[in-house]
Amino acid sequence: MTATLAARTDAAGINRAAVGIGLYAGAFGMTFGAVAVATGLSVIQAVTLSALTFTGASQFALVGVLAAGGSALAGLAAALLLGLRNGFYGVPLARVLRVQGVRRLLAAHFLIDESAAMAMAQQSPGAGRRAFWTTAITLFAAWNLGTLAGALIGSGIDTSALGLDAAAPAIFLALLWPQLARHRGPAVAIGAVIVALALVPVAPAGVPIVAAAAVAIGAGVR
Questions:
Q1: C-alpha torsion angle, residues 120, 130, 118, 149 (rounded to 10)
Q2: How far apart are CA 150 and CA 147, in angstroms?
Q3: The predicted structure's pLDDT at residue 79
Q4: pLDDT per residue over 107-150, tens digit each?
Q5: pLDDT for residue 180
Q6: How far apart are alpha carbons 120 and 123 in whole angstroms?
Q7: What's the 3-state SS for the chain?
C-alpha cells in the first residue's frame, strides 16, 4: 500500500511538472510562430516545421539564419548541429525507456531537453518512463498549438517584454539541477561548462553545445 501511495504521489508530481513545462512551451511556441511568419514562412510551413522538427533551439536557429539573410542550406546546417545534442540523450535513456519498433521511432522524435531531463530526474525506471512520455506528449501538443497561435497572430509578440527569451535556459537549468547531486554530476557539469566557454569565441554556433554534451557522454562511457 505504501508503494502504491508513493507511485501515485510521483505520478501527481510528474503531471504537475509536465503541465508547468507545457505552459512555458506553449508561450515559447507562440514566439516561434510569430518569428517564423515574420521571417517569411507561411503559417502551414511554421506549423509543419514545429511538428516534424520539434526542437525549439534548432527551429530558432533556422529562422534566425533566414532572418539574417542567410541561405536555407546554412540555416539547415545550424539547425542540425544544434539538434545533434538530442541524439546523445538516447545513450542514458535507452535503459530507462526500453522501447522497440514504432515506439522507438516515436521516442526518438520526442527526445528533447525537457523530456530527457524529466526522465533522468526520477528515482526509478518506471517513474522515468512515465515522466518521459507525459512530458513529451504535453510539450508536443503545447508547442504545436503555440506555434499555430503565434503564426496566426503574426509578429505582434514582444519576446523580450514577456521574458520568453530567458524562459528556455531557466527552465532547463531547473530540470538539470537535481542531476548535480548525483555521483560525478558536479565534475561533469564543470567540465562541460569549461569546454563550452572555451569554444564560444572561436567555434561556429552550435559546436560548443555539442562539445559540452560530448563531455557528459565521455564520462558516461568511462
A1: 150
A2: 5
A3: 79
A4: 989 999 889 989 988 888 889 999 999 999 999 999 999 999 99
A5: 73
A6: 8
A7: CHHHHHHHHHHHHHHHHHHHHHHHHHHHHHHHHHHHHHHCCCHHHHHHHHHHHCCHHHHHHHHHHHHCCCCHHHHHHHHHHHHHHHHHHHHHHHHHHCCCHHHHHHHHHHCCHHHHHHHHCCCCHHHHHHHHHHHHHHHHHHHHHHHHHHHHHCCCCCHHHHCHHHHHHHHHHHHHHHHHHCCCHHHHHHHHHHHHHHHCCCCCCCHHHHHHHHHHHHHHHC
User: Residues with Cβ < 8 Å from 79, sequence gap 6 or more?
Assistant: 53, 58, 59, 61, 62
The total number of residues written for the chain in this structure: 222
* Measured distance CA(75)–CA(81) in Å, rounded: 10
CA–CA distance, 29 with 149 (Å, rounded to integer): 8
Output the pLDDT for position 164: 56
**Which of the residues in the chain have pLDDT under 50?**
1-7, 9
Position 214 scores a pLDDT of 76
CA distance 182 to 176: 11
What is this structure's pTM?
0.70
Q: Which amino acid is at 209?
A: I
